[in-house]
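Morning - shikimate-3-phosphate inputs below, output right after.
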Amino acid sequence: MRPRRFLPAGPLRGRIRVPGDKSISHRSLMFSALAVGTSRISGLLEGEDVMSTAAALRAMGATIERTGAGEWTVEGVGVGALLQPQAPLDMGNSGTSTRLLMGLIASHPITAQFTGDASLSKRPMGRVTEPLATMGADFSGTTLPLTERGICPAVPIAYRLPVASAQVKSAVLLAGLNTPGITTVIEPVPTRDHTERMLTGFGAELWVEEENGERAIRIRGEAVLRPQTIDVPGDPSSAAFFIVAALLVPGSDVVIENVGLNPTRAGLIEVLRLMGGSIEELNPREIGGEPVADLRVTYSPLKGIAVDPAIAPSMIDEFPVLFVAAALAEGRTVTTGLEELRVKESDRISVMATALAAAGARVRETEDGLIVDGTGGEPLEGNPDPAATHLDHRIAMSMAVAGLASYHGVEVDDTSPIATSFPNFETLIDGLAQA
Ligand code: S3P
């Protein structure tokens, strides 16, 4: 446990660059590992979650090497040629590694054991084991630790997602890569589409159609993937902490460079603008098939709003820090339809309600969201006792932002989970506060 008190800060000023996108980084390694030949990746997020993916892929035969900061090469084995791992795959804290790799392994004739930390071992895996079992894979349970026995050939399925989850969608599509025939996923609510974009770039035959207002995604197996050169854009979910910090701390003016703005990820920016936040997009461009811009964020008094639940999937990881913004806005912010937040690295509704209330915010927890009555710009009091982060990086970083906008600082009980997604978070926040 590494506790820290985040103290109130003067204006935040300067230019920063956040690390590479976590979702794209996981997928870059996985798809490169399945291509025939050498792929090159730059801007890879070197956080613990992505390293769990790298270690698992190495254990299944891929050669993955770091050639410089964020620069990696991957020698793939080809779809269908993953090897039997000789030891359990340790997924650490990473739900994305676990669920996507379960998909890949499902259609390979190999057996793998999955283990993880206390947080990951509580998270539901039934949402992926259920469709993958229909394809023919076998699972010893629905929470970690568990053993998966893949099958080859697997059976193609058409699967309608019962929860809005890009991880479940991706698990089924990845199983489809080595399954003869066409595997279909029907998505009633759009979720992040990096798997679709990237697999198309790798040469898979994948097509997306609108059917009765739903997205139908089809992939033809057995696919042959061609190696790629990938530039990973900055992670909007990491930029989120600095966007909110700059909006809340009076006098702030921050440029965050190279932020990925895929519409399936950019919901927070839309919501913060509706609340009155000044967020400018500079130098819009495309990197690695994803829209990217530099964001200039300046201090703005915020107003509470009712957040449309339809926007939730495009900002699913950003609600903890949105709750912090709401705690300092003028008036009431109401969020609904957020049941999925209860099965993230922690129960993010209840953990944020407790942590924010202890820091002096007025919050009420409901079954599917939080109701926050903001201070109207007045800093929060701060907390007397450390906030419990429950092995959840986004809780730790959100409460760090709350500390910057408080009178006496906010202490978190453990900053170590931050390294899962954003190893240099503290360096960046300390640098901006001193500039
Ligand atoms: C992710 C999908 C989301 C998100 C997670 C990363 C992905 O999870 O919360 O941080 O890379 O596909 P769900 O699919 O469970 O919503």
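Note: The chain has a mean pLDDT of 98.

O.
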